[in-house]
Amino acid sequence: MPKAKSHATIEWMDVDVGGDIHRVVLKGVPLDERLSVRERMEWLSDAGDGLRQLLIEPPYGEPSFCVDLITSPQHAQAQAAFVIMEVMGYPFFSGSNTMATACALVESGRIAKTTDNGQQCVRLEAPGGRVDAHVALVDGHVVSVAVEGDEAFVQAAEQRVVVAGLGEVDYQLVWSGGHYVMVDADGLGLAPDQAASAEGLALAGQIIEAIQMDFNLRHPSLGDVGKPRFLHWMWSQREQTRGDWHGIGATYGHPGVLWRVPTGTGTAARMALLAHAGRVAVGASLRNTSPSGATLEATLLGHGLVGEFASIHTRVVGEPRVVGQVSLDLASESPLLNQRNAHWLLANPSG
Predict the structure, then answer these.
(1) How far is residue 250 from each of residues 152, 218, 295, measured CA to CA in Å?
(2) Same CATH fold assignment for domains 7-148+322-346 and 152-318
(3) pLDDT value of residue 1
(4) String of b and e for 14-50 (b: at least 16 CB within 10 Å)?
(5) For the chain, give me the number of helices (H) and strands (E)?
(6) Within 13 Å of residue 199, how many CA atoms lie on the same side as its CB?
(7) Can you tell me whether residue 345 is helix, strand or coil?
(8) How far apart, in Å, are the Cα atoms of 267 and each of 2, 91, 217, 233, 318?
(9) Domain 152-318 in CATH: superfamily?
(10) 275-309 per-position pLDDT tens digit
(11) Neighbour-count burial of 89, counting CB atoms closer than 10 A to its CB (0-12 exposed, 13-18 middle, 19+ buried)
């Protein structure tokens, strides 16, 4: 049996997407790579959750941070795999996290550039399956990433839940990398500038917790994927010209985080609602802008079927930027390892 290391050294690159930090961990985390990418995610969410806590909690992080752990792929067509970690747990797929991961892999040289001025496709594997990231470079640096990944679909339309002290709240449930609770914010009298307030965060949390109480839906192919922990606030949306939609939206992650970026999966979920209502055709676009002013744009590429549910394929575009690179060295006696039950980080990788 290999001896434990005396230090845990973790290397990551911080990438900004729409004002939110995405920590792409490039080196220093031992995992059993005989497991599938989904099984690695499940192990991390249980015995290995100390890593997530270490990187999104003080003193090294904050709850709004996202973590993307690079690991080896199992899919024959993937160049790398990644596991996503957020305040709400471990999503199967995420648009902004895919953008950040592809950006970091190219900017760090982990995936070789095929051009300094142009586009290249980075093929990745998330716990939910394969995803393509089309990376645009100018003068050798990433300027945008377009993600084509998980299919989104309306799993339960026109739902209603009773929230204590509030009454009945209407919502729709959409799968988009996770269960998304889609709520008309205007209908509840919530203004965009109130969503990140203590009252706005508490309201989103109350709705999520009320829905979780009796929730038992499963994903048609992925099976048990947990209870809803995402809520997407929707404000006014309108069709500027034919097929060109603009809206204001914000994604809440339970507990207690409203991200600055409207999120790629939240934007795709909103496009799924438009498609479900028959209001968009292939080629239509949706510019989803958060209250803080960050925008992601989704384009409807086509239709599919997930189990019995009509689904959509989208391409979501964002502009990730590298903030910096960090190497964190923790000695075996570090209280942070004890507090987070993370001494497994001292293990030497084994096959």
Answers:
(1) 17, 25, 10
(2) yes
(3) 43
(4) bbbbbebbbbbbbebbbbebeeebbebbbbbbeebbb
(5) 6, 17
(6) 8
(7) helix
(8) 46, 15, 22, 11, 11
(9) Diaminopimelate Epimerase; Chain A, domain 1 (3.10.310.10)
(10) 999 999 999 999 999 999 999 999 999 999 999 99
(11) middle
C-alpha 24/C-alpha 32 separation (Å) is 19
**Is 94 tagged catalytic?**
yes
Phi, psi of 299 (to 5 degrees): -120, 135
Angle between helices 95-107 and 264-276 (to 10 degrees): 140
Query: Residue 338: which residues within 8 A CB-CB, separation 6 or more?
Result: none
The neighbour count for residue 204, using CB atoms within 10 Å, is 28
- Between CA 176 and CA 269 the distance in angstroms is 6
Instruction: For residue 162, count other CB atoms closer than 10 A to its CB.
Output: 10
- The string of DSSP codes covering 134-174 is EEEEETTEEEEEEEE---EEEEEEEEEEEETTTEEEEEEEE
**What residue segments make up the domains of the chain, in order of their start?**
7-148+322-346, 152-318
- Tell me, which fold does domain 7-148+322-346 have in CATH? Diaminopimelate Epimerase; Chain A, domain 1 (3.10.310)
Picking from 96, 92, 94, the residue whose alpha carbon sits closest to that of residue 39 is 92
Catalytic residue (one of 36, 45, 64, 94): 94
Residue pLDDT, tens place only, 35-80:
999 999 999 999 999 999 999 999 999 999 999 999 999 999 999 9
Write down the pLDDT at residue 149. 81
Token pair in block for residue 247: 């809206």
- Determine how β-strand 118-126 pairs with β-strand 321-331: unpaired
| CA-angle at 61, arms to 175 and 22, nearest 5° | 45
Q: Do 312 and 282 form a contact (C-beta atoms < 8 A)?
A: no
